[in-house]
Q: What sequence folds into this?
């Protein structure tokens, strides 16, 4: 494990980092292993990245674990990924809780069997007082689906059109309790948003690496933080350096 006291952290650590954990299948194939071995290695890596994120002072970590489109994968892989969700709760909850991690879920739980839904909700309840790191697990999550859900709820709540502002929409998203991500990381080199945080990521900085997710280690997370620290976030304005005197 890395020791934050021995490493040099940049000054402006992003408050919220979101990760598209891509490349598990290719990681497995490159080793002649079945795809599920890649996902299991992905979980092992997730454990060390959660620890590192907390040590580096990141307050919110959002991970894309299962998208609304992932149901189209072969049934055995879908089943395996659902089993991983259950295993992570069974095996990791105690340690996450002891390490001050607060678990949250974004997406839709309805498609899971009722006992597993209850298990996820119980895990969220058990860790709700923790505040060292907020871990948003995007499971059965899709950005477009999230916006559709928000529109439906706003209509159901009788919100008038003129009352709808960007902040109203933000309050109806699954992420209403989290700030927008400052930095989005995608592993395995793909240059796609893949329906991830499409509203919230409007002004996020991106870090894309060719490294497959199981190999994305705390050192590379630190590298991503260093790259982020060099970025100038302009939010549509001109560069601070180019401002007229
Ligand atoms: C993308 O790799 C990865 C996924 C769709 C699953 C990611 C899930 C985990 C790492 C497990 C974490 C789960 C929980 C519940 C916390 P890919 O399969 O698309 O890789 P490929 O593009 O190389 O085929």
A:
């Amino acid at each position: 494990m890395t020791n934050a006291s021995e490493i040099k952290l940049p000054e402006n650590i992003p408050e919220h980092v979101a990760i598209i954990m891509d490349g598990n299948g290719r990681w497995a194939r490159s080793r002649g292993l079945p795809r599920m071995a890649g996902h299991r290695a992905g979980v092992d890596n997730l454990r060390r990245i959660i620890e590192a994120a907390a040590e580096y002072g990141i307050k919110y970590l959002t991970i894309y674990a299962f998208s609304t489109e992932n149901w189209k994968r072969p049934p055995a892989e879908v089943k395996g990924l659902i089993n991983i969700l259950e295993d992570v709760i069974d095996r990791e909850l105690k340690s996450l809780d002891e390490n001050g991690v607060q678990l949250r879920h974004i997406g839709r739980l309805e498609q899971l069997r009722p006992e597993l839904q209850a298990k996820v909700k119980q895990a969220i309840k058990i860790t709700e007082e923790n505040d060292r790191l907020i871990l948003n697990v995007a499971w059965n999550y899709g950005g477009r689906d999230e916006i559709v859900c928000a529109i439906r709820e706003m209509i159901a709540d009788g919100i008038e059109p003129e009352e709808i502002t960007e902040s109203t929409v933000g309050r109806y998203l699954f992420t209403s309790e989290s700030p927008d991500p400052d930095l989005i990381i995608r592993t395995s080199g793909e240059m796609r948003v893949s329906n991830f945080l499409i509203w919230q990521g409007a002004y996020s900085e991106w870090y894309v690496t060719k490294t497959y997710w199981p190999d994305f280690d705390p050192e590379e997370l630190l590298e991503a933080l260093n790259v982020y620290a060099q970025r100038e976030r302009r939010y549509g304005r001109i560069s601070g350096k180019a401002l007229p005197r």
Notes: Strands lie at 16-20, 60-67, 101-106, 133-141, 183-186, 205-208.
